[in-house]
Write a structure and sequence with these properties.
- By secondary structure, the chain is α+β, with helices and mostly antiparallel strands.
- 54% of the residues lie in helices and 15% in strands.
- Helix 1 packs antiparallel against helix 5.
- The radius of gyration is 46 Å and the shape is elongated.
Length: 447
Amino acid sequence: MKSLRGVLFWKILLGFWLTFIVISQLMWLGFSLYGKNHEPPERMANQRLMNLQMASATSVLQHGGPLALNDMMSNWTLSDRQFFSFRPLDGQTAEPVPQVPRSPEWPSDRAPAPVIKQVTGADGREYLLRYDIAALQEQRHMDSILHMPRPLLIVGGFCGMLFSLFLVWNLMRPMRQLREGFTRVSNGDLSVRLYPQMRRRHDELSVVARDFDAMVERLSVLVRAREELLHDVSHELRSPLARLQLATGLARQTPASVASSLDRIDEEARRLDKMIGELLSLSRAEHGRLVDEQYFDLLGLLEAVANDARYEAKPSGVEVLLDADSTQDYTVKGDAKLICSALDNVLRNALRYSSCGQQVTITLSQQEGWLAVVVRDRGPGVDAEKLSSIFDPFVRVNSPLAGKGYGIGLSIVRKVVLAHHGEVHAQNARDGHSGLEMIIRLPHWTG
């Protein structure tokens, strides 16, 4: 098998054998230390075997005599009868006892003495039963390795081999699929999915496959969004660059129009600088880089943003109102500069769609662990089918009040709010009036 050449199989097999040996030795040590009379388990088994044979021989000899005992012993295996013998007390041996050579590892002074028992047979004669328990223990000791019988080691090795093979096969197949999936992703193939192939496992590897698919799906969305953003940025940059080229061309061809061409160049340069700044803010918010994370008062931040909006709204005659309970706590944890940029974009968007004499209201309130900021204007609102797309980059509503924005402001708002684990959505006014409501919810930090 191909998997046998890997390291994993040998690690699993070695681990199985180490566990098998350690458990067997601990069990032997436990029986030896805490068992009856602190005897090792193999000695206790030998003792039980000796007691059983001696009791059987005594009963048969008492009721059937030596012939019946010889018949019973003829049915024993050699390993069962070679340590047992009996003889009449008149000195004639009825059954010889083979001598088993002892290992030098078993000193004679530590070997247990043979068990001897005097029994009256069915014929009325006295017999002496003898069992060489030391020879039995010595043979069992020579037939074992690490206090385990040889057959147990053979069966354990065979079962360990089968277990290791099955475990390696069960692990290597999904791991090979994961490796191939990562290879395809690294080569740019984002269409690979592993969970449909591994969903029937119902274990941690299927969870890994599901997370892998989620990761690839997220990467696919990010790559697609980057490509779309690059396409949109390229498209948006063409217009000011074209006007810059036109202005420089007019300045060269018509010396009298140099001043107006320079004014046009300055205006287009400012537009490019503004677009680049908004793109940088969008990138910073998209990656959630809260470098200046701190605790700040959202009400104070709103008051500063509202004052700037009032100053900007004076020429157009739009009134900006702020409604909040100043006795409440409005502490937020995050980047105050990003939150300020998001709120400023929302207010600028509301002012852009408001006309003279209208009001833009800002409401701040607490809502079950959240701080809700609602910015409402009295403009024309947005078509219901376009509400879900106004937060996408470079999406602008077709309206004569839309101005010359680039459609990046609300996208910055959404990404900033999401980076602060908040929520933002837009809806048209529901009280019979026209206008748009922008609802921003941020987590309320309460310490």
